[in-house]
Each structure stands twice: as C-alpha cells, then as structure tokens.
Amino acid sequence: MNRDGYFVAWEALRRESSVVRGHRDDAAEAREDLRQAFDRDRASLGHDVYGVELARKLPGIEEKIFTAFDGYLAELDGTSEGLSTSATDYRSREWYGHLDDPSSSKI
Fold it and tell me: What stretch of H or E contains 57?
C-alpha cells in the first residue's frame, strides 16, 4: 500500500474465493471422514472401566469437535462469499466506467 491507496484486481479476488471454496470442500470432506470414524469406532471402545468412561464422555467430546468444525466451515463460507462479492463489485465498477484506469481503482 502506498500513500494513495492500493489497487484491487477483481480477478485475484475471484481466484482467491475459489481457493478458499476448495479449502472449505476439503475441510467438509475431512469432517465427514471424522464423523464416519467416530461412528465406526464407537462400538469398539471395550467394556472395561476405561471404555465405559470414554463411552460416557464421548458424546460431549464429539459435540465440541463438530461444533468447532461447523464454525470453521462457516468462516470459510463467509470468506469465500465475501471475496466473491467484492470481486463482483469491483468488476461492475470497472465495467460501468467508474474505474477507467488502474490508478483510479484505489480504496
């Protein structure tokens, strides 16, 4: 950034929105894999005192993990949507001549 502001390339915003969306898709897949692992392994906790104790605590542990995962996914969704919206806004300003040259597209 210089004293006059900075240049925003809407194409870069659109590209980064897509990158974040890809990370979100990867995280959602990891969340589903983790859910399947919990579902698969829940029955194999054992019947000793440790298995019983873990079985008692596991629902709360899972809830905390998946609540955090859902919050992370929501943050990624918001970031991707925000970048996409900004890209659309900057592109339309260029399209309608509000930003005729790169030096005028400063914030």
Answer: helix 49-95
